[in-house]
Amino acid sequence: MKLHQALVLLAFAAVLTMAAMQLPARGDAASPANRVFNTRGEPVAGAHYISHAEKDAATPNMVTVILADYRSFDTLGETLVVFAGGIACLFILRRLKP
Amino acid sequence: MMTSHIPLLIPATFLLAALLIPLAALLWRRLSWLLAVAATGLCFFYAVKGLAHVTTAGRLHYHLAGWQPPFGIEFVLDPLSAFFSVFVTGVALLALIHAGRVVAHEVSGVDMGFYALAMLLLAGLSGMVVTGDLFNLYVFLEISALASYSLIARGDPRAPLSAFRYLTLGTTGAAFYLLGLAFVYMSVGSLNLADVSHLLPDVGDTRPVLLGLSLMVLGIGLKMALFPLHAWLADAYTHASSAATALIAPIGTKVAAYVLLRLMFFLVDPQYLRDQTPLPAIVGCLGAAGMLWGSIMAMCQKELKRMLAYSSVAQVGYIALGIGLASPLGFIGATLHALNHACMKACLFLVTGNFRVRLGHSTLPRLVDDLRRTMPWSAAAFTTAAISMVGLPPLAGFFSKWYLVLGSIQQSNWVFVAVLVASSLLNAVYFFRVLERLYLTPLAPPDDTDVAAAAATREAPASMLAPTLVLAGALLVLGIFNAWIVSTFINPMIPSRLGW
Amino acid sequence: MLEIIKGYYAYFFLVAVFCIGLFGMMVKRNLMKKVMGMSMVQSAVILFWIVSAFKDGATVTVLDPARAVEDADLYLNPLPHTLMLTAIVVAVVTLGVSFALLIVIYRRYRTLEEPLLLEKMQ
Amino acid sequence: MPVTHESVIPLLAVLAPLAAIPLILLSSRRPNLREFWTLAAAFTACGLILSLLPGVLAGRTVAYDILTISPGIALSLRVDPTGLFFAIICSSLWILTSFYSIGYVRGAGEKKQTRYFASFALCIGATLGIALSANLLSFVIFYEMLSLGTYPLVIHKETRESYRSGRMYLTYALSAGLLLIVATAWTWALAHNLDFRPGGFLGGVLADEGAARALFLLFIAGVGVKAGLMPLHSWLPAAMVAPTPVSALLHAVAVVKSGVFGVIRVAGFVFGPATMQAFGLDTILAAVAAVTIILASVIALRQDNLKKRLAFSTIGHLSYIVLGVALLSPEGFMGGLLHLANHATTKIALFFCAGAIYVNLHKTEISELDGIGKVMPWTMAAFTVGVLGLSGVPPINAFVSKFYLCKGAVSSGQLVFLAVFLASGLLNMAYFFPILHRAFFRPGGAGLHGHSEASPLMVVPIVIVAVLSLVLGLYPNALVHFFDLARGISQSVMAGAAAPLAGLAP
Amino acid sequence: MIEHARPFDLAADRCGPSSSPIIRIASRGLAPLIQIIGLYVFFHGHYSPGGGFQGGVLLAASIILLRMGLGFANTQTVMPSGWTVPLGAVGGLIYIGTGFFAVLCGGNFLDYGVFPMPWLDPPHLHSYGILFIEVGVTLTVMSTLVAIFDHLLDG
Amino acid sequence: MSWLIEVFLFVLMVVSALVALRSRDLLAAAVTLSLFSFMAAVIMASLGAIDVAFTEAVVGAGAVGVFNIVAITLTTRESRD
Fold it and tell me: Chain B residue closest to A25 (CA)?
């Protein structure tokens, strides 16, 4: 049983590795995610953030700008996840008075 | 002015309510229920308004924080998402009205937590429906997942363990989704759903994209309880409180199915997917296997909730089968079945909640009271939903199966046809078993001695009965007006690339 | 060959960590170990994203007055970093909830070994 | 095309029994009121159906689209001669059965009478819907409704045996319904049309013989379960545990006849004679029917339970109709249709008699019937009429239809089926006449003393159906022009065109 | 059953004060330091790595440290257990309220550029908007992490 | 050559993962898991993701470690595998 699972996982790892070999290499500045313009000539989000973050939000830390401005709803979701965790612990662990 | 904000308002109202409920509960405990119902009602209203707008005036795009899509997050209310948000919020509204009494009965003392988590769950689910951004979808997925893990964790003594299993599997599913998304992002460079689907044809080597897509489908399949990944579902639904089950079971898997629809029909060219890759065929076959397996397992169950849970596995199989067909008819069948099954399952679980509140149990061999007489309306609602599940016209369940059969025949997929037929028959077997319990005088006297103590003396209270009956009535209405639903709402959402 | 290793070793390691985590979740019978496996799976995925943001010769994502902001190649891609901040938070909270579940399970059954739990539930 | 009129009358006719259901349920505490609703619905439905007759005889077709079920397919009712033919049989016999039922359930002291009458009304509504539905999907919808409505009747006694029969019935009926749905879906995928058309609409679209056969078999399996075609018949004898009026109406008229009606619709209005012939489908159907006729008659010989014997006789006679249709000759088709009506009247008489004997004397086995002819003269006289009719003795109505069936066998040149008909007639005599012999020519036991006829509520309907059989035998065109209708239908089906009825109006 | 020394006195029910004076003193002394670092990380998030989440975690860590060192009951004055979840809700409300405020001002959700502060140009509006929502994030993260800790301990 | 250091870190990470999974003492496993998280943080830092690395360090070694320890003390320290 254990062996079976290990074999399945090995096969899975092999598939993942094979597919990962087709991904852009580590550090490739021209990869689809990192370059400035995509195949259709439109700006790619990552590079756009680099060049616009300071202009748009007067904040040098790009990550902060993306986190709290460009993609601020993700962060709202993240905050709510944290909040959900708190409520969840309360809900799960609260002992009821008999 | 409000109309343009609708895509935002649906999840945001839920989030706001989730934040307000802990504060409101400090004032008055009952307020949390009222607030939850009010927020859900408001969202239902928004969703209906959004659907009306989408069908008459076209889709709504909402750019959060005012940034243009590839850079900012976008919420989209198109025919598909508007349709799903309407029935998700509608069913949730009924389930929450019903939950008022059940929560007081089964998870009293932490009702604030229940309603706050319910709001978070709904925020996550409706957010998954409206969002047009693949990573934002992950965030919403996690909100809803976290809420459902914990909602499920309270119930009978075994609930925490089943919730834990659900948590590990669900988190793995989310991790698979995120890994798949990483593959897609690295190959395409965008996270916006529309943008990705528009750039995908330019990607030269599609192997990472396909693997990424498969991983995402795998992750969503886990959430959706697609056949071999369904292990968490039965335990989770059985041991949780009736209120939590009634809330999660009808819509949780449906929204996952929605994501699957999005991925397989909108992210990638479905025709390419069908003709060049085995992915739709695999999803369809898993769906078919799940239909049979779920039905067979449901037949063996003695506990009503567990039976319904396995039946959910089977019904999710129907949706997956429709998705796997990757044809317009399959799409119609899958969407319509998502709607129908949400209503049917909600109705069945609400009735189970009625039984639990009045009888204290929902175990089949012990359902020996004269429920036909003591709880006639609950029994009638159960009957309606059961007959609809079996797929007898003119109730709603028939029509989604009809489209699925049509779609399978169109592709000459006789195996699917046979599975559909067999699964319907099995459905009939296990549901008529319950109906016999409800309506017929048992032949042998029960061997349980504590039955008399648990006898129901009266019908469930009005606040529980009303949602149940509304759902039962909705099944008839949905069945009768299904042509209108299909032509008005579902036909416009069929992706144009699918060809019609 | 060396090029391939240089370009892809991160992926290989991460796939390994991912699968080790999965293996732990599947094979280990102790619930705490399952949680640990889960945590590894999540970390592997997060690192996968981080690797995708790396560019040779680029600097961190805080604006450096000495470097032109117009040349995007000079800075790392900040988008995956941001996303993974969210993912990390989600992972932590999930862990917190899973610990809560474990404590409840332990309170009731006084064990975290799956076979024993199943035995006690009969 | 015939002139089609929009009219709400067919819908009302279908709704009348269905509308009675809530009324019946609500008046469960007051039996007289409840039975009033039943009768009122019966008379309303029958009146509405009969009011359509002149128009149909004049060549008008009345239709009503209720709603769109699925894009391109409407749930619609249409009164064409065939549907009306069947609807008249059902609705008129429902009136008689209602009276009889009242007498029966009160006489036998049955439990849960409200459920009984409500299900009964549901069944009749569904059967009328089957008769009048304009396309396959509407047909399927009412067909499933009928399956469901019959279930409470079959398990009415709530004994272990009846539960078993009920499950068996449900399994058969639901499987059949599903096969029918699949067949319907396939038909839609092929033709994008489901409307019944005399002479069929699948002619141009079926190219492949294998597909045609598979589709036909799906259809026949779907409708054949209710029609009692062997080997799909075994639910029918089992379902005889139901109360006798149920057996009478449902298992001699409504349920089984809707199966047969389905065969007629499929053969004549979906496939059409030409297509059937082209792919050899008629041979398949005829062979199945012929085998069923002979086997059922032989099995009937060995049954001692009266209702079981009648059930097997029913199976045989249903296949007469199917065989008539399968002969694909105008006379055969017409004979089949006539037998649909004639078998209904005669067999219902026989079932009524069996029920009267059960309620009155609590006898169910044939071997116990010695001498009851003297105790229940009217009942047994009616029984005799039915027996003679089914055995093909003139001047009872079933003779007429048998005559046309035989004629059809001859004219289609398939003499083997003529032999089947004749042999079955002999077998009919062989299993029916011993009953008469026992009833009239054997001395009764001591248990018969002090018993007389059953209540008039039962005897009067029995006598009426017997007289009806006799009248229809002497004047096949009497009352409702069955003969003209049947002839018109068979001509239109064979010609592949509608409306040859014009000019036949009185 | 192996008897292990417990690193902290986390009794089955509730956390008592640590028996070691070193830990008591160290936690009392370290906590304000961590809080200052946390506040710095939070406020400096615009210019260097850090921000609301990290700051919140650090603030929570200081409180958890106090809880572990000085005991559960003794630190209720620092952060009452009953307040944690409502405080988290308040943090979330600050965030979502900012979003809705932008809607009220006629922009899209969370669009800081429309805030009615004419003395600021849009980039700075965004900058302050970011700071403002980070306050909410910090508050939520801090109180929720403490809440999780408290509930894990106490139920 | 910096990539070789990263390889070394990765190796450490994999090893700590394996150790964490193999250890029968859950407290030791928890500490090793913190090491795992720390390695992840260092790798992130070496990949330039300072923000993420900071968060991962604060969270992985801090919050998760504390939760882990609390959970272990409140439940059991032993594991059968």
Answer: B186
What mean pLDDT is reported for chain D? 80
What is the distance between the alpha carbons of residues C95 and C84, in angstroms, rounded to a whole number? Answer: 16
**Chain E and chain C touch, per 3+ beta carbon pairs within 8 A:** yes
- Quickly count: other Cβ atoms within 10 Å of residue B242's Cβ: 27
Instruction: Say if residues B435 and B349 touch (Cβ distance below 8 Å).
Output: no
**Phi, psi (rounded to 5 degrees) for D471:** -65, -45
A61 to chain F: closest CA residue: F51
**C34, C64, C112, C119, best to mutate vs chain F, most F CBs in 10 Å:** C112
A-E CB pairs within 8 A amount to 105
If DSSP codes are grouped into helix, strand and coil, which group holds residue B152? helix
- Chains within contact range of chain B (3+ C-beta pairs < 8 Å): A, C, D, E
Residue D250 has pLDDT above 60, yes or no: yes
Higher local confidence (pLDDT), B346 or B440 = B346
Provide the domain limits for residue A35. 2-93
- From residue A3, give the alpha-carbon distance in Å to each of C21, C23, C26, D480, E60: 16, 11, 11, 79, 43
Percent residues over pLDDT 70 in chain B: 95
Which chains contact C through at least 3 pairs of Cβ atoms less than 8 Å apart? A, B, E, F
Sequence-distant (6+) residues with CB within 8 A of B492 are B55, B79
Inter-chain touch D148–B410, beta carbons under 8 Å = no
Q: Average the pLDDT over each of B94-103, B174-183, D231-240 and give the range with the smallest value.
A: D231-240
**DSSP E strand stretches across B87-224:** none
pLDDT at D3: 58
What pLDDT digit, counting tens, does each position of B187-241 carry? 888 999 989 988 888 886 678 888 999 999 999 999 999 888 888 898 899 999 8
| Record: contact A81-C89, CB cut-off 8 A | yes
C87: which chain B residues are within 8 Å (Cβ-Cβ)?
138, 178
Residues belonging to chain E with any Cβ–Cβ distance to chain B shorter than 8 Å: 85-86, 88-90, 92-93, 96, 99-100, 102-103, 107-114
pLDDT, averaged across chain B: 88
B positions 26-55 inside 8 Å of A (CB): none
Give the pLDDT score at B499.
Answer: 61
Number of domains in chain D: 1
One DSSP character per residue, D384-421 reads: HHHHHHHHT-TTSHHHHHHHHHHHHHHHTT-HHHHHHH
Beta strands at D4-6 and B74-77: parallel, antiparallel or unpaired: unpaired
Number of domains chain A contains? 1
Query: Is the residue at A98 inside a domain?
Result: no
Residue spans of the domains in chain C: they are 2-55+79-121
- Residue D500 within any structural domain of the chain: no
Task: Provide the shortest C-alpha distance from residue B457 to chain A (in Å).
Answer: 27
CA distance A45 to chain E (A): 18
Each residue of B460-479: pLDDT tens digit?
888 889 999 999 999 999 98
User: Could you tell me which chains touch chain E, where touching means 3 or more CB pairs under 8 A?
Assistant: A, B, C, F
Select from A58, A64, A87 the Cβ nearest to the Cβ of E51.
Answer: A64
- Minimum distance, in Å, between the CA of residue A4 and any CA atom of chain F: 18
Classify residue D86: in a domain, yes or no. Answer: yes
In a domain? residue D503: no
Average pLDDT over residues B253-267: 91
Domain limits at D468?
4-495
CATH topology of domain C2-55+79-121: Helix Hairpins (1.10.287)
Structure tokens at B134: 């693949």
- Domain assignment present for residue D430? The answer is yes
DSSP 8-class letter at C70:
S
Lowest mean pLDDT among C6-20, D303-317, D414-428, E7-21: E7-21
What's chain B's length in residues? 500
N-terminal to C-terminal alpha carbon distance within chain C: 56
